[in-house]
Amino acid sequence: xxxxxxxxxxAHERFxxxxxxxxxxxxxxxxxxxxxxxxxxxxIIQSSRKTSWVEVTSAFMNQAFAEEAWSYAxxxxxxxxxxxxxxxxxDAQFAxxxxxxIKKKLEKKSYEPFRDKYGPGYLVVSVQYPLYGRDTPRxxxxxxxxxxxxxxxxxxxxxxxxxxxxxYQIVLWRRLHTSD
Length: 180
What we know:
- By secondary structure, the protein is of the alpha/beta class.
- The chain contains 5 helices and 6 strands, in the order αβββαααβαββ.
- A hairpin with a 4-residue loop joins β2 (43-46) and β3 (51-60).
- It starts with a helix and ends in a 5-residue tail after the last strand.
């Protein structure tokens, strides 16, 4: 990955961590703040009572859409637009990529030291899918139910960061291994 692309990705991850922390602090009347950015995970967060950690990932409709989005967002990188063709089943494509993205994170061994030190962390998924709508979560759930995942119990819950008309919405998608 180029240095420019990595800088863009880190800015994206920091934005999602900040958006997540703002919402968790609001919902739970907490005072979490970032105290370290080991990368991975993106952030070690701490409140007056607890220390935890946050990992961020992005779920795109497909690889072509991901390449287009990253290339346009990265200064100095030549844009790589998606092919000009009809996209069949975009919700199904997104659901499959969403579950595949989460599966990789849940099965990853490199988070175990953070789980062992701080307990299960938060997985924050930046939803990069412009057609996300009412039916999308149903298809995501169907794909999730069909998946075989060797969960390493590193995450307590999965939150989605979904773009809305006036900003972003943080949605608890799944509780995994302890309550929030």
